[in-house]
Amino acid sequence: MIFKEKPNLKERIEKFTEIEHAFNKEFYEKLETRHNPHTLFIGCSDSRVEPETLFQAEAGEIFQMRNIANIVPREEEPDTHPSAVSAIEYAVQMLKVQNIIVCGHSKCGGCAALRKLKDYKKKYPYTGEWLSQSVSISNYIDEEYPDMKESDKIVMLEKLNAVQQLDNLMTYDFVRQKVKAKKINLQAYYYDIARGTISVYDYDSVFSNIIKEITSTRKDFIDNNEE
Ligand SMILES: [Zn+2]
């Protein structure tokens, strides 16, 4: 499937209506009247990351907020991104999800771009601007692990970037309150696509001290990146 060129979308939709929908008509009729998702999935836009497949879930179970490199804007930072934050607010406040999962993944193009952000910004200004929210993580890795292989640095960045977003989520009062009251389970995942494994990190994971350090340098790195 992944190597197939020019997929016939019309044919695929017809197949959905005639086979998938027709055979599960009752399910879809019920689904139309309500959804009650248990999980907010914050994932990369990457086409290889498929939450329904990962969780073996049906339509109606997973509420999604996806963007390049699964980033959550921080509440206190000046650039507001209402599209991203409103999806989180809606899931938490209105739908009352029980889990928020931030899912990073292997070979993430967004994380790779963070490694050469200034050049990348010239070519793709919107994506570069969005990604700059996570540039402090990439710079932290360079400073702390100067001798690490580049490919290992990228894997570390993919993982730390996912965990960083838990801290970013906790800048919102409506998330913080529910996590503290244990009404929401907050975790970061790292999905290794080739191996099919997922590493799970809690908010208070082994990385939490590192994240604190990265967050403290965050403003400097974002400002420096503006030149
Ligand atoms: Zn990605």
The profile of the biggest β sheet is:
5 strands, mixed
Total E-strand runs: 5
Beginning-to-end CA distance, first to last residue: 43 Å
Given the helix and strand composition, which structural class is it?
A: alpha/beta
Q: Order of SSEs, N→C?
A: HHEHEHEHHHHHHEEH
CATH superfamily: Carbonic anhydrase
The molecules bound to the chains, other than polymers, are: zinc ion
What is the beta-strand fraction?
5-15%
CATH topology: Beta-carbonic Anhydrase, Chain A
* Largest sheet: spatial strand order: 2-1-3-4-5
Q: Any guess at the CATH architecture? A: 3-Layer(aba) Sandwich
How many domains would you count in the coordinates? 1
Give me the Rg, rounded: 19 Å
CATH class: Alpha Beta
Mean pLDDT: 92
How many alpha or pi helices? 11
Could you characterize the architecture of this molecule?
32% of the residues are buried. It is globular, with a radius of gyration of 19 Å. A five-stranded mixed beta sheet has the order 2-1-3-4-5, covered by helices on one side. It is an alpha/beta fold and 227 residues long. The protein has helices at residues 9-23, 25-33, 51-54, 82-94, 109-114, 117-123, 125-131, 135-144, 150-169, 173-180, 208-224; strands spanning 39-44, 62-67, 99-105, 185-192, 197-202. It has one domain (35-48, 57-224): Carbonic anhydrase (Beta-carbonic Anhydrase, Chain A, 3-Layer(aba) Sandwich), CATH 3.40.1050. The model has no long low-confidence stretch (mean pLDDT 92). Helix 6 packs antiparallel against helix 7. It has eleven helices and five strands; from the N terminus they run H-H-E-H-E-H-E-H-H-H-H-H-H-E-E-H. Helices cover 51% and strands 15% of the residues. Zinc ion is lined by residues 44, 46, 69, 105, 108-110.
